[in-house]
Amino acid sequence: MLTSRPVAGFLVRVTLAHVVTYFAVGLVAATVFNYEELFAQPIIRDFMRPFGSVAVIVGPLLQVVRGLIIAAVLLPFRSVLVARLGWLWLWLLFIGVGILSTPAAAPGSLEGAVYSQLPWWYHLIGMPEMLVQTLLFSALTGLIARHPDGVMAALPPVFDRVIRALVVTCLSFIGYAVVSVIFALASGAAVGSAENLSPAVQGVFVAPFVANGVIAFFASANGSRGRAAAALISYAFGAVAILSYQALVFGSAGLLYALVAPVLPAAILWFATSRAPREDPASVDDAERSVSRPGSLR
What we know:
- Helices cover 72% and strands 0% of the residues.
- It has helices at 4-32, 35-38, 44-47, 54-74, 78-81, 86-100, 110-115, 120-125, 127-146, 157-187, 193-196, 199-202, 206-219, 227-250, 255-260, 263-272, 281-292.
- The chain crosses the membrane at residues 7-33, 53-75, 87-108, 120-144, 165-188, 200-221, 228-248, 254-272.
- Residues 279-298 are annotated as: Disordered.
- Keywords: Membrane, Transmembrane, Transmembrane helix.
């Protein structure tokens, strides 16, 4: 019988695996294939929202919901996922049902190629992103199923901190995106590709984005003991970085935005560093051996 804790852990970890792989692979694909220009092509612009629209910017939040749905659906199949090739069966399932044979005429699917007016190149150009993201997600989900106490238990402790830093970095971006959209809507500003996805505008997030990952990496070494200080450092750095960037690049700075924008990313970092760090088994064994030696307790 499954207890609530393993079920909750599986749901959370699989959801995070989806969010991180979706964000990381999507960011690379958007850069390599130039989605901003791609979505403006004839026919495509009637099918997809503009790359800089509110829906696209807030889209990462939807991935949390999608991740939870996928994780819940996979719960009864954990016995399959724990097999040595369980991750491969999951990936093939994604390819067969989630990409090629979707119930609707989606891009990249067989029905989409036959029944939609989307050009062939559009069906093919999204394949690398879908295949790589589902492959990485399937591999991570297989690891999660085989290690219900945590995937990091099978890896050196430093990987725990690296993964946590990566998760914080991805979720922090979502936090900044949400606050930015709220401010844009409140001020009545147009939320379009030219305004939101230009290098000058997006550059304001680079320093806080990287800093949150670095802070999370070092703060996770101390677990909950240092999370308050880490969150405060994250908030302070984010506010100062945003004010400085706006003043240098745009000639003026929005104080209210700079004070509010780092709140959600700092809160995310606070929650992400709440768990105590995992000890290195080698160091634990060394400590136990030193205690067990004669004369070590003088």
